Here is the input.
Amino acid sequence: MTPSSIVLLGSTGSIGVNTLIIAERYHLPIEALVAGSNIDLLNEQIATHRPQYVAIAHERDRHRVQHENIFVGEEGILELLERSSSPTVVNALVGYAGMRPTLKAIELGRHVALANKESLVVAGEFIDTSHITPIDSEHFGLWYLLNDRPISRLVITASGGAFRDWEIDTMKDATFADALKHPNWSMGNKITIDSATMTNKIFELLEAKWLFGTANVDAVIEKKSIIHALIEFVDGSTTAHFAGVDMKLPIAFALFGRVEEPILPPTDLLGIGALEFRPIEADRYPIWNLKDDILTHPHRGAVLNAANEVAIQAFEREECTFFGMSDMVLDAYRKFEDVHPASIEEIMAIDGEVRKYVEIRN
Here is the structure.
């Protein structure tokens, strides 16, 4: 069912921009736009879509925003959600900052089209996923393939990130700018760094666990990002989801539930050429050492996420090496292996403790 209007959190990022393209195509009104610091693009979006409410990250940018109803910061986003009435909230915010808006939207009875991975990674145990449709090529692919046959295993694919073809010995000298050179996708800085370390894929495995109710999930590298997901069935057959490198398709399904006209051109099977699958190896991606443990103990996602966000900041400031990020995360994960938050409040407390620990250790 087409929503009467939407609230879009993270409007100036790649998911947000593509969401607005789909909204414009289907004449879907935008009740509210939430952005970070890209005020110039936000003003263009305001002029085009004429939202009733707008939120930004920093008070210092308020005077630049060409709108009368402006909210600021996390608390401002939560207030904006309370004042808005759209049945669908698209959450494309980056990082831990997206968790509380997801929880608030669900509390308000909204449907959440979720691109914010960290919501489920950090708080999946406390989120009613019946209110969520993922905006993610891998989870969309799994959803698209699912049917009533008994499943053996869910498999998602990874591109391998910026360093998949580098010699491992040279990766220790890789810079932040090097890590942003993703071979297949154009994404924001954090998710691109997470792709290079394979943290993004650990996050997606956790998401799949919460969304589909099984820890029997795995990932492989598929270099061309043409196959996004596969399902292995008990009978021994496997199905795969092919689609172009474009997020408009999962966005359209998340908004409307079904799509009956072309969103992307069909996959050019003859043009693809050879497909290659590779295992994800821990010597190239040390974070992969956590895969089995975190699927068994998904409540440790709060530790993983907090340590990872601090580590990325350290790498950007040239305070650690590329592999140093994984060292910091693995150290924090071991330090806080006994935590098991029993509430959102405890998750927020653990998040703060982990960040402080990693910052001091660094």
About this structure: The mean pLDDT is 94.
